[in-house]
Every structure is written in C-alpha cells, then in structure tokens.
Specification:
The relative contact order is 0.14. The chain has helices at 3-13, 18-34, 38-46, 79-84, 128-138, 160-169, 196-209, 224-236, 269-283, 298-307, 316-321, 325-339; strands spanning 55-57, 60-62, 66-68, 89-95, 108-111, 116-119, 145-149, 177-181, 214-218, 241-244, 262-265, 288-292, 311-314. The protein has one domain (3-352): Aldolase class I (TIM Barrel, Alpha-Beta Barrel). The chain is 39% helix and 16% strand. The protein starts with a helix and ends in a 15-residue tail after the last helix. The protein has an eight-stranded parallel barrel with strand order 3-4-7-8-9-10-12-13, surrounded by five helices. It has a three-stranded antiparallel sheet with strand order 5-6-11. The chain is α/β, with parallel strands linked by helices. Bound molecules: flavin mononucleotide. Flavin mononucleotide binds next to strand 4, strand 6, strand 11 and helix 11. Flavin mononucleotide (FMN) is lined by residues 69-71, 74, 93-94, 108, 117, 119, 121, 123, 148, 181, 184, 217, 246-247, 264-265, 268, 292-295, 314-317.
Length: 354
C-alpha cells in the first residue's frame, strides 16, 4: 500500500478512538492470517526481502533488522501477519502471569501533529497461558519471536522477583528470546525495579537455568549514567542484550501531552537515540543493543545501526505510516547502505569506528 492509499485508510482508522482503531486493525490482520492464501498474498504485496539485511545473532536468524516492538500484539494473535508485513522479528506481550484488564479507558491517545502516541494501557493482556497456547498452536514462525514479560499489577513488590523468574521459565516451551519489562510507566512501582540489586539478582538467577537469550528493556527517563550502569549490571549478570527504550514520562516533550502514561514516536526519537549512544559507548561489542523509540524511516534506522544498534524495533511508526511501513524502512535502509558503500548490514556499526 503506497502512502496515498494508506492516507485514506488512515483517515478512516483515525476517525475512531485510538484503541478502537487498534482493535479493528488486529481483527483485520487476524482475518487475513486465517484466510487461505492471505499470508502469501500479503507478503508478496508488502514484504521487502534482501539478503544484505539478514543477520544471525545469538543463533537466531533475523531476515531484516526491524522488529515489531512489544505492545502491538500483546496476546500473540497476529505474529504471522506481522511477519508477512515485513517485520524481521515480533516481540509479543507484555504478558503477565494472570490475565488483567489494564487501566480504565480512554488510555491511548494520538499526538497526531507530532507523529506520536501516549498510552496508559497498564499491561492489558489475556495472561501467560493464553499467549503460550497461541504460540504453540501457531509455531513455527518465519521470524524470531520475543516473549516480553511483566508482573501483574496486584503482585506485591516483594514477590516480583519470583514472578519474573516464573514467567521466564515459559521460554523453555515457546519463544526465541525473553524480555524483562521493568520499564513500563503504567504499572505503579514497576520502574522501581530498575535498580542494580534487582536486575543483578534477576538476571544471574534466570540465566543460570534459561537456555534462551534474555534481554532487559529500559526506560529513557533516568539519567544516562545510571541507565548505562544498570545495563552493564544486567549484561554482567548474563543478559544477552538491552532493549532501549520504552516510552517516556517526560511530558514536557509536547504541549499536547497528558500528565500520565508514556509517550512514544517522534517525540522520543532524540531521547532514545541518546540512550543508545551512551549504551554503545559502554557496551558495543560486548552485548546486543536493540534500539526502539521514534524509528520511522530508513535514514533513522541507518543512524541507529551506525550508532551501535544490532537490531531495531518500532511501534508508533506503523500507526502513522501504515502496513507498508516495515518494507519502506527496509528498502530505504538498503538505499542508505548503497549510498555509503556498505555491502551488508553487519558492516554498518563498524563504519562509525566503534
Ligand atoms: C499503545 C502502546 C502499548 C505498548 N505496550 C508495551 C508493552 O506492553 N510492553 C513493552 O515493553 N512496551 C510497550 N510499548 C512500548 C513500545 O514497545 C516501544 O518501546 C515504544 O513505543 C517506543 O517505540 P516507538 O516510538 O516506535 O513506538 C507500548 C507502546 C505503545 C504505543
């Protein structure tokens, strides 16, 4: 779908409240996924493939670097559809042990003039068992699958460590990598776990038994030095990488912003980039960095890879750019590589001299 045809669909989708639009999009993607021939027709129309974008990292093959960020497919319903749209990986969740309904609606808002969103969803999801059942039913997948996990809202803080360890055990059965989410702003007290003691204990305990790669997803709002320290502790305790960043609670980023929830999209682009740069300074070559936050073009994708990311993710860009989003980013990324005389994606980070 070119940008013109999406502009019509977008006008229609944007005429509903954002969460209703999201549910309509999920339903359409699910229907397409179930329709015989739907996935191959979608892939023919939308996906962009080029072996120069493929990488094998941690024993997982990523056909391209752009993954779907957590939160879009919380319940693992549309993985095949998102792969057919050209995403090179899909992170499902955040999944909590028990189902929970999340915060009261409205809890998702468009900051349309700024290509951004603000959400206070609060881990609405059908729970771990439902996600596991779908992941088992729909496997195998053509792209790596991340299982992003978080605590239930009503779990006491002192029980959180055990709860995360229990969630991570699910990776024995499904998923290619796990993500510890302690960076959502919408579960009270969650970001308090972004401390060295909790992160060190969680990753050292979990990686002693978990055979799949585990990542820590961090918020962009603490000072950069403490984020780097936290990430370093996670890596030293066995984390395979860092996903940076989650949404931001810096409401000064926009005059339209509400004073709750997390901001995503263009408004957090520079913040997220600065976190990546600092992480790369300390950890490039020692771990896998996945950059997320405001990536909406091939040029931005190239800049993140150049700054030291091995992989990328996006959510908000998809909402504003539509179903052709992943293909456009990947095609433009190839264009940037051609302009810079780069033959393979793995050479981009090297080109900054890091
Ligand atoms: C509506 C919405 C729901 C989200 N839910 C989750 C979630 O459940 N878990 C998580 O780790 N991140 C969640 N995120 C954060 C995204 O995964 C991503 O880190 C963030 O939006 C920045 O990327 P972007 O600017 O490309 O959207 C959510 C984002 C949005 C917009």
């Amino acid at each position: 779908m070119g940008s013109n045809s999406y502009s019509l669909l977008r006008r229609l989708l944007f005429s509903f409240d954002p969460e209703t639009s999201h549910l309509l999009a999920l339903r359409a993607l699910r229907t397409m996924q179930r329709t015989p021939g739907g996935l191959s027709a979608t892939a023919r129309r939308f996906a962009f493939r080029d072996p120069r974008l493929g990488q094998t990292l941690l024993d997982m093959h990523f056909p391209n670097p752009l993954g779907l960020a957590a939160g879009f497919d919380k319940d693992a319903c549309i993985i095949h559809a998102m792969a057919a749209l050209g995403f090179g990986s899909v992170e499902v969740g955040t999944v909590t042990p028990k189902p929970q309904s999340g915060n009261p609606r409205p809890r998702l808002f468009r900051l349309s003039s700024e290509d951004s969103l603000q959400n206070a969803m609060g881990f609405n999801n059908e729970g771990l068992d439902a996600a596991l059942a779908r992941l088992k039913r729909d496997a195998p997948f053509p792209v790596p699958i991340g299982l992003n996990v978080g605590k239930n809202k009503d779990t006491p803080q002192e029980a959180a460590l055990e709860e995360y360890l229990g969630l991570i055990d699910a990776l024995d059965v499904v998923g290619d990598y796990g993500v510890v989410n302690i960076s959502s702003p919408n579960t009270p007290g969650l970001r308090d776990f972004q401390n060295e003691e909790f992160v060190g204990e969680l990753f050292s305990t979990a990686t002693a038994t978990c055979r799949k790669p585990l990542f820590l997803k961090i918020a962009p709002d603490s000072d950069i030095e403490s984020l780097v320290t936290l990430a370093t502790v996670a890596v030293e305790a066995g984390a395979s990488g860092i996903i940076a960043t989650n949404t931001s609670i810096d409401y000064a980023l926009s005059t339209q912003a509400k004073d709750f929830g997390g901001i995503s999209g263009s408004l957090i682009r520079e913040k997220s980039f600065r976190v990546l740069e600092a992480l790369a300074e300390a950890l490039h070559g020692k771990t896998i960095l996945i950059s997320v936050g405001g990536i909406d073009s091939g040029a931005e994708a190239y800049r993140r890879l150049q700054a030291g990311a091995s992989l990328l993710q996006a959510y908000t860009g998809l909402i504003y750019r539509g179903p052709g989003f992943a293909a456009t980013v990947n095609r433009d990324l190839i264009h940037s590589m051609d302009q810079n005389g780069i033959d393979h994606i793995s050479q981009i980070a090297g080109s900054t001299g890091r």
